[in-house]
Design brief:
Elements (H helix, E strand, L loop, with lengths): L3 H14 L2 E5 L5 H11 L2 E3 L7 H6 L3 E5 L5 H17 L3 E4 L7 H13 L4 E5 H7 L6 E2 L3 E2 L5 H12 L2 E5 L3 E4 L4 E4 L12 H15 L3 H22 L3 H14 L2 H7 L2 E3 L1
Parallel strand pairs: 1-2, 1-3, 3-4, 4-5, 5-8
Antiparallel strand pairs: 6-7, 8-9, 9-10, 10-11
Helix pairs in contact: 1-8, 1-9, 1-11, 2-8, 2-10, 6-7, 8-9, 9-10
Length: 267
């Protein structure tokens, strides 16, 4: 399990090294994700044309793939990027947005994980449950149906695909199938604005660019966003002001805050 010192060290390295992170994310949140990465200290590039994605991926230190607004052409670009990343040893984060809401998304994500793979899978409880084979866990792309044992489903996905799962919620969970930690940092305003899950995946990508231990990288990204959310929530009057305050809090996040305010425990 990571410790606050390890998480603080990851944040410091992101700020120092400013890694280039290739993100193929959805059209709804593209600008928000880019802003979050910039505020965090990384450098985003968001190429999705099939003609250039392999070249862009090769120049990057991490790849983040997001299923938010899929199309045949976009998924082909994501596949090409993922395969090139695997060939080059570049770490991949898969954000299976809406998996379980449609067979199209679910089939692609399962096939990608089985044949190309990802170092980290970041999703909400319903998405992770759908990857584990549970039917009817999602309504739309962000509505979770019914009670889900997130820890059990997350461990199952981690073991099935030899990956690290970061399942986000009021309490987030990171597991590699054997070890797990619960992260309590966060704020109720985080799910009220569009794109905070996508931001979480991108921040994990930035951490994975400088820290190849996927468990530590995933925990670091979620803790950073949770801490920023707490600071932003204290200053915000509602979702609108929270959005701006969240970027400011990410930009101003310090290693001392990580050391003093991180809250997580072994599961």
């Amino acid at each position: 399990m990571p410790d606050p010192g390890a998480v603080a060290a990851v944040l410091e390295r992101v700020r120092r090294e400013q890694p280039l992170v290739h993100v193929i994310t959805n059209f709804v949140t593209m600008n928000a994700v880019a802003d979050a990465l910039r505020a965090f200290g990384a450098r985003p590039v968001m190429a999705h044309a099939i003609e250039e994605v392999a070249e862009i991926t090769a120049a990057s230190r991490a790849l983040v793939l997001n299923l938010g607004t899929p199309s045949t052409e976009r998924l082909q670009a994501m596949r090409a990027s993922g395969e090139h990343a695997r060939a080059c040893g570049i770490p991949v984060v898969l954000d299976p947005v809406g998996v379980g809401a449609s067979q199209f998304r679910t089939a692609w994500a399962l096939d990608f994980l089985a044949h190309t793979g990802a170092q980290v899978v970041r999703g909400n409880g319903g998405e992770i449950a759908a990857l584990a084979g549970r039917r009817g866990a999602m309504s739309g792309v962000d509505g979770v149906i019914g009670d889900i044992d997130v820890a059990t489903e997350s461990r199952a996905v981690a073991r099935a695909f030899t990956t690290t799962v970061a399942a986000t919620g009021a309490t987030s969970l990171v597991t590699d199938g054997l070890h797990a930690c619960a992260i309590q940092n966060g704020h109720p305003f985080l799910p009220t604005i569009t794109g905070t899950g996508d931001m979480a995946s991108a921040l994990i990508g930035a951490c994975l660019a400088v820290e190849r231990n996927a468990f530590i990288a995933a925990a670091s990204g979620l803790i950073a966003l949770g801490l920023a959310g707490e600071r932003a929530g204290a200053a915000a009057r509602g979702p609108g002001s929270f959005r701006a305050a969240l970027l400011d809090a990410l930009y101003g996040l310090t290693t001392q805050q990580v050391m003093d305010e991180s809250r997580f425990s072994q599961e």
